[in-house]
Fold these 2 entries.
Entry 1:
Amino acid sequence: MTMRGDALAGDRIGSGLFEGVRRRPVILGAVGMVVLAVAVVIGVAAGSVAVPLGDTVGILAHRLLGLNVTQTWAPSAETIVMDLRLPRVMTTLVVGMGLAVAGATFQGLLRNPLADPYVLGTASGAALGAAIAVLIPVRTLIFEFGLLHGLAFVGALTAVTVVYRLSRISGIAPMTSLLLTGYAVGSLLAAGLAMAMYLSGSGLRQIFAYLLGGFEASSWIRLATTTPLILGATALIATRARALDGLLLGEEAAVHLGVDVRRERAILLGLAALVTAAAVAVSGLIGFVGLVVPHVVRIAVGPQARAVLPLSAIYGASLLAFADVVARLLGEIPVGVVTAVIGAPFFLFLLRRARTGYEL
Amino acid sequence: MIRLDGVTVAYRGRAVVRDVDLRISAGERVALIGPNGAGKSTLLKAVTGLVTPVAGSVELAGRPIRAMSRLAIARTIAVVPQQAILPFATRVEDVVALGRLPHEDPFRGAGPADRAAIAAAIERVGLGHLLGRDARELSLGERQLVLLALAVAQAAPVLVLDEPTVHLDLRHQVEAMDLLVDLNERDATTIVAVLHDLGLAAHFFPRLILLDHGRVVGDGPAAEVLAEDRIRDVFGVDPAHVRLGV
């Protein structure tokens, strides 16, 4: 401990220590944007009818950027790219971004590395909602969304609301209470889901397909309905990075650092639940993106939410876009299977070689 | 700077702090002492706005604490957190940087002034050799120093500490006390610390406040507050066992 504050030494630490680390998120962000662009092009080019990469880039440049590109492609290729593949790829980006940001938020909020977007009942609520929709013999479509998507969305939000309300009347610490209540409510809803599936008869396959998640049914209209919700809530979460940072040291420390913990917890919980519900409604239950991506990002840049949230958004979007390409190339297998198969080993690999002896 | 009038704090109907009146002026250096369960930590929680008294009022820098936002309180009082459990791997310098949360731009993050404060705090607490390491891998004593540096980086006019030396070895105890004296004398920071070590309290603090059963039973310089009959009454030990070096 030096008793005289040595300004020069302070400056030295200031510049030497922080510069490299500070720039890293920016570099990774730039790399992530390139990865994202590659994911879009490959995602649009790949599929049962292969569109050559050059044509894909040409169509995208022509239609999206308004560039005057010589048309070397068949009109059918343009239809496939613009009406089928592009909305699908864009949906994977929005959902991947949402899930990764929601996961980072839940992990930070609950101070629990094992948390994911589905931790507080959203998954089981959505699943039960979807299953009930299959049982109800009503077929409606609003903005190309059916009853199934609507009830899944409502189910996810209702479950989180119930968990939050119930957790507040218990006598134990709020974070622990939330987790335990989430577990209890989730179990109850899972029982309801099991019952619904048991009763569903021929609808079982439809419920099951939804639970596994996928992007086959993507469209521009669906994308236009979901995107503002996910994008808006995600942006609002990013404005509350300070609260997530304060919570790193615990609730009491966060209060001492100027965070109104009770208020911020309610706001962040609501926003993350909204993102998750919208993502789940449009694409079903896709695991691992929300769990793995924030951890990978933290290993690279540390836990500050200001870096973790945007980088999770970029890399979550890329990961899900690539996972969907793989799912498509393997004959439309459920994308949730792909994210698990890619995500789990990659995560284990990172855990092993993390420099700081990362532990959960 | 800190003014308590008739403050009573109760947990589940049981009063832990009873009818405490207290004035701490800007630039003072005060140690809160007393046996376990005397209400020292609870009194600190009332001062930092973590608990709301059931009776009485708390004022910070002339403003009632109830009317202050969390951010305003955090810019007035820095609290050295009790042992914190970090959920994710976090570099030492990143933990210290959290002390700037009340000051930094919420959107752009730490600016040059914040980084200078972080670097100065690291330098002052002597954490240079721990930089780059995961704070979760440090010893309890090292972590305590990291949290002290966080509060120093917060650079508030009042610094509050609850048992800042429990995990520190002798040398670091003395160094931590020297730092508190330095922050007090050179930066005019008001220091309020809960201490169990009466020797450190007597040696490093000009004013001691003795609490017992939630009440202030002694307030003044060590020689007065730690008189032999007081030690026998309040702590229930033979004063011959306590060497205070006053």
Note: Residues 80-156 of chain B form one domain.
Entry 2:
Amino acid sequence: MDPISIDVGGLVRKTVTSLYSHLVTRPTGRAVRMAIETQLSGTVARSLSLIDLSEVTILDFSCADEVVAKLLQRYVDDTAHEAFFVFCGVREPHRDQIQVVLERQSLIAVAETGPGTFELLGTPTLVEADSWSSLERRGLLEPDGLTEFLPDDEARAALDRLVDRRVAFRSPGSGRYHALSRLVQHLL
Amino acid sequence: MNVLAVPVSLDHQTVDGLLDGVASVDTERTLFDARHLRWVDPSGMVALLAAGSVARDRQGTLPRLELPESPDVLGYLSRMGFFRGACGVFEFEDRVPRRASGSSDVLLEITPIEGNADVHSVVDRVQSGAGAVLASKLRYPSTAIVQFSVILSEVCQNIVEHAESSGWVAAQAYNWTRRLGRYVVVISVMDLGRGFRGSLADGHSARYGDRWGDTTALEAAFLHGLTRFPDSGRGQGIQQIRRQVQRWNGAITIRSGTARIGQVPEWDDSPPLVDTLAPFPGAQISIILPARVDE
């Protein structure tokens, strides 16, 4: 699965005539989200997209709802197109807006919040957060070595829920669990 | 002719008197007597434009504005862009001072909000000067300009998304030496649209029955985040504005129709709810952000 890099700042500049890359107002957010969806519509049944917010200086709640929450909602239950997303360039000024819109919709998302630092934002359960952290630390978990790192059933079930919620990837062939951060590392 | 006396001090605490006054004028032409105006903040300036617009629309002719006698007040109104906004709203003498070219100490001049492009423009314009004001006068961290811009964006979007009318926004920093002993930023956003009751009526009035009115509509939006949109991702704007204002120990009040609701900190003695105002169209929002105090 080859990740696609999407520069949101560039999309804003194409969508809205502005000197700065400001993601404000719901119509702007909607236009950017639809531009992302259009880019993804030409891809195969499974995709991993790196949504780059590093050039976005101002992100309001309306745009965060469109570009993050609604984008995730569009694909989270889509079985025809298994879409995964990593949001990069999520710095302190954006983080609150993204966290709020994810919480409102009970969504979770992987975000690069600092150079080489990834976090799971939104509303994971405690067990899901722990299982995600275990996977994130190792980058890869083999199916027959799971019990060593995730000893109890609840933790392993949580890992599968993370796959269902599209914040971890399980290879259909090998059954290996992959941290999304490792899959996009070469693009950062 | 109706004569409305503009108070000597026209700010967020005294605008209700002006708006109540114009709410009850009849179809005779109105004279706004601002000769004795000595102090006006963004809330006062924008309220004056709103009041003049209501009088104009009701009476079918431009109301007259007697200009302030104080040259300092005239100059300040000019720097804030009041007279540019007043064209088409008031008839007034042509003795308005020219706005000086070059840099200004104004945080955000009175800006009409008619569409989303205006919201983008407001956010763009505050980037250059607001950060310095927030840091030097309010002692906010350097990242505060982002949250400040988000507040402006969300509060101006309410005009476009809910009012179905146009409005205005303005902001300025003041040294409230006597009132609070520190600097504050005053933000004012006003429109003459549907108001909260009109905006929420279709989706929410039935659950309130006979209790539905301006007060319950304001409470529904301000306290409970209800919105006219069925989309569960909507209705966050006011809640997040309140949250950020509270983080900065600020005050926010919203007037709509006959009621005004507010989130007021300990340094502000405004009542959190007033429901005996004269009916005035649209919504009028006032936000005050004080300088940080070292603990």
Note: The longest strand of chain A covers residues 46-52.
